[in-house]
């Protein structure tokens, strides 16, 4: 099934690369160079997924504004940030505005398309909640694999796709230590060790926001991380 993906990116060469890559995977792609241009099109019809840069032309946070507006119109539209800005503050800002994932532009085109497919799989699973789901249940954790949904004590944990796969990597074999390299492989990302550490910190904060006593993710110094056995 062909889906419509919108790309909002002000750099022409980068925009063209993304359009070519996603078109090769059978998607329809609409590209926009600015927030107003995208807003005009989205007023007529929302796409099936949106990829947004944070800085758009003379609007250093135009992507954040667009994300906020889109999330206000649809709670389920997959929104993915793809940007050169990788500070913790920017990542957290994007996720708090409701983005499903936040990627930096050093990601490969193959990884980007894998991330897009994962978001579409999650959207499809959420639309058919009666479908059979693989579930991991550990104490307060419930992880529904096909729906890419994680709850803690019955409350939804707002994880990005990257964070979801990291939680899955840890929780499906509790007690087993996963190195940063293994977590990257399972989350289909290639980043430095500090970025993996940042992902783990943000994951913990999201669980702690729901339960101040949360302590399921252990740091095994010099080796990696594990879900408490």
TrEMBL record:
GO terms, molecular function: phosphorelay response regulator activity; transcription cis-regulatory region binding
Family annotation (SUPFAM superfamilies): C-terminal effector domain of the bipartite response regulators (SSF46894), CheY-like (SSF52172)
Species of the source: Chiayiivirga flava
Domain Response regulatory residue range list: 4-120
Listed GO CC annotations: cytosol; protein-DNA complex
Any one of the GO BP annotations: regulation of DNA-templated transcription
Pfam families, per database record: Response_reg (PF00072), Trans_reg_C (PF00486)
UniProt name for this protein: Two-component system OmpR family response regulator
NCBIfam families assigned: marine_sort_RR
Keywords, ordered alphabetically: DNA-binding, Phosphoprotein, Transcription, Transcription regulation, Two-component regulatory system
CDD domains: REC_OmpR, trans_reg_C
Segments forming domain OmpR/PhoB-type: 133-229
């Amino acid at each position: 099934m062909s889906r419509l993906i919108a790309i909002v990116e002000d750099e022409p060469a980068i925009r063209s690369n993304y359009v070519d890559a996603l078109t090769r995977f059978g998607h329809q792609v609409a590209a926009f160079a600015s927030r107003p241009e995208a807003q005009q099109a989205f007023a007529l019809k929302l796409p099936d997924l949106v990829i947004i840069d944070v800085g758009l032309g003379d609007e250093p946070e135009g992507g954040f504004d667009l994300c906020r507006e889109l999330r206000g119109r649809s709670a389920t539209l997959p929104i993915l940030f793809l940007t050169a800005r990788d500070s913790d503050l920017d990542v957290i800002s994007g996720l708090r505005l409701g983005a499903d994932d936040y990627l930096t532009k050093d990601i490969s085109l193959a990884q980007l398309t894998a991330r897009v497919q994962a978001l579409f799989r999650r959207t499809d699973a959420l639309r058919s909640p009666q479908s059979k789901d693989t579930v991991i249940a550990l104490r307060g954790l419930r992880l529904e694999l096909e729906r890419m949904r994680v709850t803690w004590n019955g409350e939804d944990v707002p994880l990005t796709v990257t964070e979801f796969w990291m939680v899955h990597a840890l929780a499906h074999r509790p007690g087993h230590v996963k190195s940063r390299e293994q977590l990257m492989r399972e989350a289909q990302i290639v980043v430095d060790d500090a970025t993996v550490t940042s992902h783990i910190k943000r994951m913990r904060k999201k669980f702690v926001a729901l339960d101040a006593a949360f302590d399921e993710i252990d740091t095994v110094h010099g080796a990696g991380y594990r879900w408490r056995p």
